What does this fold into?
Amino acid sequence: MRSGLVGPRLARSLLLWFAPGFVLLGGLSFEAFELNAAQHTIARRARTNATEYAGSIARHLFAQFAELEFIGVSLLAPRPDGTVRPTARSVVALRRFMALHPSLYAFNIQSADGNTIVWSTQQQTAKPITSAAGFTPLPGHPDYLLGRPRYAARVGTYAITMRFRAVGATGATRYFVGTPYRLEQLLAYPNVFAHPWTLTTVDARNQRPIGQWRGGLLFFPPHRPGVGNPLKAAGNRKNEISVPGLPLKVLISWPITCAPRLWATDGWVRWIMEMLVLIGIVVLTRQIEQSQRARDEAAAAIEQARRHDRLTGALSRIGFEERIISLADRLAPGAQLSIFVIDICCFTALNRRLGVVAGDRILVALAARLRALPGALLVARVGADSFAFARIDPGRTVVHAHIETTLGITEERFRPSEGIAEHLTLSLGCACSDRPHASRRSDGGLSNRTAIRPGCCWVGRTDFWRVGSMNSVPACSITCRPTHATKRSPRR
It folds into this structure.
């Protein structure tokens, strides 16, 4: 391959592969968009599920507040001495109420200051789980009070206390009715999530987590330092939803692999189609590139065959003509360029007598001997039985010594095949040109001192090469006449 073809071939290959590269880049950009869409989908689903979970907590608590209000207003009435105790009929109703609500530990009637239990469905101490200072009235419902979630030893689990405040006609507090709500019942969620969410319920009043729902199980913080399992840390992605009407909020988090998993689940069919399209474009581009490469290689082979002789590996006549002109143009001042042309005498008869194969071997051997000559340049096969080469000498010299050396390559017999040894008869012609420090003529050419010197001319030939540029060596400077440079070797 010629070096001049590398640049255009590389540019053409880059242009060819631009199409599959553009398709690949477009596919990757589209898949990046789809992955981003999957992340937004996961975040939207997480927010929806967290909202449902927060709504479930709010429904449970507000339903319990409504029932406490009903009991406090309808079933209880103060006695003449001012105390509040349920009647026997009310006690039966309360016990049936507790049986229907396993999430509640006990129904308590508390004093007006909220720090003493005056009656309860469970036998327990008079001190409530949460003192009056630990309750917060709910926005829009000043008589609904929510306590702090904590571990209650008397309940045996985590609980959040809640109260309803009964007020008199003057607005003064008459008593409280309350109950501890088991967090394991409040925070449990019956629905099965399609994604591995982690739902953490946080008390917004102190930003402390009170429970965590993940994988269908409920986890609580340890009620004593060093006891129990800590809650799982929030995932790589999270969202926050407030529990409506309550000082609670839900943090929902999920692993970073959720979005890629959804992206892969929804996109694997699309990936197959995209890969098939890309493979088709790559195969087509590869075939086009191979076809163009084959054409380039064929053109390079034709060009190589045009400039080189296939049999001997020497330059062809065209190659020699191209190279000798550039060699003459680069000739240094004072240097001498000599061109030698060799003919094999009677080669046609020799070829007919020994055969084509043996004749070809003689030509190959002669070309190899010419290439081995000291100083031989541009060895070429310029005819069926003709060779040429050039040499450059640093100064003017008599070329007869070079002629004798060249004709001496026939002293050793040629052995084209087993048992055959042939002497060849060669005719040789030589032309010389030197470029002394000559001044330029007004017409742009060199002075006559640059012409080929007579006396060393072609032998037995009627053709010639014009050496140098059009201006440097006039055609008339090369003459054709016989000389005594012919050396014949006797035939076998």
